[in-house]
Amino acid sequence: MSSIKILVVGASSQVGSALCARALSVEMSVVSFNDHAQDILSFDSLTEIVAKHQPNYVVNVTGSSSVDCAQDQLDEKSLAEHEAVLLLAKVCNALSIPLLHLSTDYVFDGQQHAPYKEEAYTAPVNRYGEAKLAFEKLIKQHCHQHIILRVGWIFSAQGNNFVLRTLRQLQQHDSVKAVSDQQGCPTYANDVAGVMIAIINQLECDIEVWGTYHYSGAEVTTWKGFAEAILAAAKKHGATQAQTIEAVTSLEWPANAPRPAYSVLDCSKILSTFGIRQRPWRSGLVKVIDQVFKPVSID
């Protein structure tokens, strides 16, 4: 049994679920919190909870709201999430427990035409990105031992993500539309979980590598390209009515929140520091599609 214990905040999120499962599979001890920021009431109560469980690491993978929901989010909820991250950073710092925090490629404005490095200028174009950037700043200010991991276009076999939404549309319509002028890298939630475990294992060697890192699936694509890959995988299961993906522009697509036109992440730093290579998102996509359509056995 591994001696490493992690406390996962946001255990019901896409990455949270994958992280808990993968950590247990390598015999780490896992203590899980749900996604609700408002459940964390005060510095003293959170300190008491963390001190009670005595984790070696705290991992915050809270899913927050979707990008479009965040655009209409009430100020009260934003304030609660802000306060929760601030408390988490302060408690981890006070107890000298490293904090790993999941962030997003949407902290960038999308005006760049080359993959974004960690130190690139941040200028979110939507409230989701603004909130995530604010969380990063809180952690940098209040918790010395931190790892901020920016990822992009997360998908899995659960939750509300592009893959599952597209699958539903493919089953209901003859043709499905997808945006063709936004570029990024889809990222399999289970791969992100593996990255976090790999980082934790190396932090056990007492190396001082705190800071911000990027990770995403290998291969740049558009939402249309991603949808076409989903269609191809779904066809193998005979689970699609649609035969084509129709290209639309960002201006033609009905969305509450604007997205950056280009949010590709440069992942060279995580490779040079931890030896972590990007995994192809297409292999993760096949696993997700297989999981969605896997026959349920009845005993």
Describe the structure.
This protein is an alpha/beta fold and 299 residues long. The protein has a domain at 5-160 and 187-217 and 260-279: 3-Layer(aba) Sandwich (Rossmann fold). 41% of the residues lie in helices and 16% in strands. The protein contains ten helices and twelve strands. Strands 2-1-3-4-5-10 form a six-stranded parallel sheet, with helices on both faces. It has a two-stranded parallel sheet with strand order 6-9. A two-stranded parallel sheet has the order 7-12. α2 (43-53) packs across α4 and α8 packs across α10. The longest helix has 20 residues, at 75-94. The two termini are 32 Å apart. The model has no long low-confidence stretch (mean pLDDT 91).
CATH topology name of the domain at 5-160 and 187-217 and 260-279: Rossmann fold
**Number of alpha- plus pi-helical segments:** 10
Widest sheet, order of strands: 2-1-3-4-5-10
Structural class: alpha/beta
Low-pLDDT segments: none
Oligomer: single chain
Q: What CATH architecture of the domain at 5-160 and 187-217 and 260-279 do you see? A: 3-Layer(aba) Sandwich
- State mean pLDDT (0 to 100 scale): 91
**What is the chain-wise order of helices and strands?**
EHEHEHHEHEEHEEEHEEHEHH
Q: CA-to-CA gap between the ends? A: 32 Å
- CATH class identity of the domain at 5-160 and 187-217 and 260-279: Alpha Beta
Overall, the morphology is: globular
| Beta-strand percent range | 15-25%
